[in-house]
Amino acid sequence: MGNDFGGRMTVRLSTGQTLSLRGTLNLNPSGQSNEAIVNQDASVDRVGTVQARRAELNFSDKGIDYDALMKSDRFNVTFIEDFTGVTHYYTNTFVVGDPQINRMNGEVTGCSISAENYNRDNG
Description:
Elongation Factor Tu (Ef-tu), domain 3, mainly beta, 7-stranded antiparallel β-sheet, two-stranded antiparallel sheet, 5% helix, 9 strands
């Protein structure tokens, strides 16, 4: 049995605002990253670091007020994968990074979201 990926994806903020995604959507759904540390006797230990759940996204510039977006209260973000039926929920979210707009093609890069919680509904 295979897995399906890709297709149309939509992004909706709990404010009602939508973003038109471009290119890749990268999700970091785990609240922990791990690092291996090798000891002098060649044994290996693991160090877990708590982290925010994150998503990196590029989208089309449609006249968003970027100052308002960067200064906004925390909000929720929903990513819906129409083709696969999977929905991703990021809650208590804020934008991180430095929005950069390519005026040759209208693509906004440099933005990610960080959230306290992540949930996935497989449809």
